[in-house]
Design brief:
419 residues, alpha/beta, Urease, subunit C, domain 1, TIM Barrel, 2 domains, eight-stranded mixed sheet, 38% helix
C-alpha cells in the first residue's frame, strides 16, 4: 500500500503513555484543530498539525492525499466486552420483561440464558459463524475496529469449544481485530444446578486444558453473582486459568455487592466488568491494583437499572472502559456510538473521558493497546472520520450514526447500501 496523507481533519485522541488513563488523565486528549495523519503500510508514521506533518514528508514521496473535509478524526472504537457469538435472539423474552415478568419466571419457562444455550447446541458451526460475522460487520459499520467476543452459551466442553472455533473463523474472515475470551462459567447448567462445584471441577479438569492446548482464547472470565458462581468458585477457576497463562476477567457485582471487584483486585485481573453494585471500598481496591473497570451502560438501559458509578470510579483512580455487552438477552446492540451517548448523558462522563474509555482504555482491557486504541506513531491506522466538531457529537446527535468513514489499517471499509 502506498503512503497516505490525511489532511484537513480535526484530530482528537488519547495519548498512550504505556498504561491505561485514570483519574484526571482519563479526560485529557491530544487535539489538533487542523491536523494531519501520515500512514504507511497500514501504520501511523506521522501525526500533528498539517504544517508539522507536511514538514516531515520527504519531497518526492509517493503519497495519496485524502482531504478530510474538516471532519473530526478519532481512533477506531474498541469494544472490550461482547457476547456476539449466539444463535438466536430473545425478542419475545424482551417483551415479557417489559410487561413485568420476572427473569426467574422467564427462566422457569425455558427462557433466559438457558434458551441461548439450547440454541447454540442446536446450531451447526456454519450457521453460528454467519450470525456472528454479521454482528461483527454491524459493529464495524458503527465504527468498532477491534473487539472482544466471549464464549459462554455452550456450558459444556464441546459447545464452548465450538463457539471458540467459530470466533476464530470470524477473526480470520473479518478485517476487525478480535480477541476471544473463554466464559465457560457463564451460568450453572441444569444438570449441575444442585452441585455447581462439580461444574467448576469440569471446567478446570476438562474444558480449560483443551482451551489452552488449542490456544483459542486469550482470557478466562467468570460470572460471580448470587444464583450463579460464588467468589470462592470464581477464585478457584481463575487461579487455574492464571497458572495456564490466560488473562483474567470477572463479571463482577452486577446485581449484588458480592465482592467480585475485590476478587479482581486480589488476583490482578485485567478487568472487572458491570460493577453496578460494587462498593466504594472494593472500587478503591481495584484502583490500587490497576484493574480496569469495564462499564456497560446499554445493559443498564435495556434492563432499566441504575447505571454504574462512573464518576466515583474515575475520581477514585480506576481506569474506566466502555463496552456494548452485545448479547441476545440484556443488551442487543453493536453500536459503541450509542454506548458513548449513554455514558455522557447518564453516567456523568465527559465526552473526552468517554472517548478514552471507548478507545485506549478499552484496548488495554483486552491486551491490544500496543496495536490500537490511540492515534500514536507505530500503531495501526485504525480511525474514524466523524460528521461532527468533537467527540461530543455521539451524545449530542442521538439515534443516528455520526461515523462518515471507517478506516482499518489505513484502508477505508466499504459497506453495502441499505435496500
Amino acid at each position: 500500500m502506498a503512503g497516505q496523507l490525511f489532511r484537513n481533519v480535526t484530530i482528537y485522541t488519547p495519548q498512550d503513555e504505556g498504561r491505561p488513563r485514570a483519574g484526571r488523565d482519563q479526560g485529557e486528549l491530544v487535539h489538533f484543530p487542523r491536523g494531519a495523519l501520515l500512514v504507511e503500510n497500514g501504520l501511523i508514521t506521522g501525526i500533528g498539525t498539517e504544517e508539522q506533518v507536511l514538514a516531515a514528508v520527504q519531497s518526492g514521496s509517493d503519497l495519496e492525499e485524502i482531504d478530510g473535509r474538516g471532519r473530526c478524526m478519532i481512533p477506531g472504537f474498541v469494544d472490550p466486552h461482547t457476547h456476539m457469538c449466539f444463535a438466536a435472539t430473545r425478542e419475545a423474552e424482551f417483551a415479557l420483561r417489559l410487561a413485568g415478568t420476572p427473569y426467574l419466571e422467564i427462566l422457569r419457562r425455558g427462557g433466559g440464558i438457558l434458551s441461548s444455550v439450547k440454541a447454540v447446541a442446536a446450531a451447526n458451526e456454519d450457521a453460528l459463524y454467519g450470525k456472528t460475522l454479521q454482528h461483527v460487520h454491524n459493529a464495524l459499520q458503527f465504527g468498532t475496529t477491534t473487539l472482544e467476543i466471549k464464549s459462554g452459551y455452550g456450558l459444556d466442553t464441546a459447545n464452548e469449544l465450538k463457539m471458540l472455533r467459530v470466533i476464530g473463523r470470524v477473526t480470520a474472515d473479518s478485517p476487525v481485530d478480535i480477541v476471544a475470551t473463554f466464559l465457560g462459567a457463564h451460568a450453572i447448567p441444569e444438570e449441575f444446578k444442585d452441585d455447581p462445584d462439580a461444574f467448576i471441577d469440569l471446567l478446570i479438569e476438562e474444558s480449560l486444558p483443551q482451551v489452552r492446548q488449542q490456544n483459542i482464547a486469550r482470557f478466562c472470565d467468570v460470572f460471580c453473582e448470587e444464583g450463579v458462581f460464588t467468589i470462592d468458585q470464581g477464585r478457584r477457576l481463575l487461579q487455574v486459568a492464571k497458572k495456564m497463562g490466560l488473562g483474567l476477567k470477572i463479571h463482577a457485582d452486577e446485581v449484588n455487592d458480592l465482592g467480585g471487584a475485590k476478587l479482581a483486585a486480589e488476583l490482578g485481573a485485567t478487568s472487572a466488568d458491570h460493577l453496578l453494585a460494587a462498593s466504594e471500598k472494593n472500587i478503591q481496591a481495584m484502583a490500587s491494583a490497576g484493574v480496569i473497570g469495564i462499564l456497560l451502560p446499554a445493559t443498564a438501559y435495556s434492563l432499566r437499572k441504575n447505571y454504574a458509578r462512573a464518576r466515583l470510579m474515575i475520581e477514585s483512580g480506576v481506569p474506566v472502559a466502555l463496552a456494548t455487552d452485545c448479547n441476545p438477552g440484556s443488551s442487543f446492540t453493536e453500536s459503541m456510538q450509542f454506548v458513548l451517548g449513554l455514558a455522557v448523558l447518564n453516567m456523568q462522563m465527559t465526552p473526552a473521558e468517554a472517548l478514552t474509555a471507548a478507545t485506549l482504555n478499552a484496548a488495554y482491557a483486552i491486551g491490544m493497546a500496543d496495536k490500537v486504541g490511540s492515534l500514536d506513531i507505530g500503531k495501526q491506522a485504525d480511525f474514524l472520520l466523524v460528521d461532527g466538531d468533537s467527540p461530543a457529537i455521539f451524545a449530542y446527535h442521538a439515534g443516528v450514526s455520526s461515523v462518515a468513514k471507517v478506516y482499518k489499517k489505513g484502508r477505508e471499509q466499504a459497506f453495502p447500501q441499505p435496500r
